[in-house]
Amino acid sequence: TYDVGFVVDNGMMAIAGATIEITGYTMREEIMGEMHFDLPEGVITYTASAPGYATKTDTLTITSSTFVKYISLSPTYDVGFVVDNGMMAIAGATLVIEGYTMSEEVMGEKHYNLPAGDIIYTASAPGYATQTDTITITSSSVVEYIHLTKTYDIGFVVDNGMMAISGATLVIEGYTMSEEVMGEKHYNLPAGDIIYTASAPGYLTQTDTITITSSSVVEYIHLAKAYKITFVVSNNTAPIENAEVVINTSTYFTDASGEVIIDGLAAGTYDYSIKVADHDDYADSVVIVNSDMVESVVLVITGIEDFTESSVKVYPNPTTDQLHIQLPECQNCPVNIILHSLTGKVIKQINQSTRFNSLIEMNVQDIPSGIYFLEILESGTRNTIKVIKK
Fold this sequence. Notes:
By secondary structure, the protein is mostly beta strands. It is built from no helices and 36 strands. The chain has a five-stranded mixed beta sheet with strand order 29-36-35-32-33, with no helix packed on it. The protein has a four-stranded mixed beta sheet with strand order 3-4-1-7, with no helix packed on it. The chain is elongated, with a radius of gyration of 42 Å.
């Protein structure tokens, strides 16, 4: 072992009443403030303390020689904390300062022996918002008043307009739900404007603000059902990939199957447009009521050669119930007949892979009165005729 002396000072002189603790070892003697221990070679952990100073724990490496270790302690100051509501101390309030223990509490004033510097504390009390802050300790004892903000029990019910939505979530940044009872989510919130975000599978996420006043309330959050539209785009013979679909100010593109799914839509009317190279542009609107939608769109190939005027006849035109479509004689010819609205929407369609008759009838009795376009595609040619339904 080696004779190691310890001097605990304040940076200028030895501190009277200072102590050194080394687990497993006892001080052999103290001479003029120098505390001597017989210690073996290796790493030794010691703790130095003195009244009015911050305790210090550190390690010392003993080699093959006798020496004196000088340990400088930082002075501490008696700092009192009063946790109040702006008028009086709050009964049951707690204060946490990591690494330090309260020395005493007198008339609601909590005292700590703290060194100079920035000290982080956390104050809390039932019914008040927890507060974490920093106090800067200088070379004097002070009293710090911590004013906590009153909180109120606010319940939130996320529903669909009729009943609470199972699995709904609510996020309020900076706050944690205290409990949930029968679908009612409770938070302890201070007065003021609070921003929340409510969400649930199959519903549109909603972010909004609630203004908390000096009372506890229940806030009902009504989420709107989310729907999806599946667009199926083709040229009537094959699906169209990479068609540009613009709806609700967003742009999407169809896949190899000619489909694109747009979800997260509320009930309502949506204008849309579709375009792709070598096809006529298409525009229409779709109405979502209370279910998902499938919107099938047939694009017309640009520049298909038209029939001559006399090669096809449609009568009667105007009509009230039936359209008679007289086609040129053609055995085993496939034909596709499409009735479009003025906006290009498919109203009716007749598709025959093989036709034997030159006369084809289309029943239009069930469609609204107005102007329509009848498109006939056969053998790589196209004819478009305006028809009027009375």
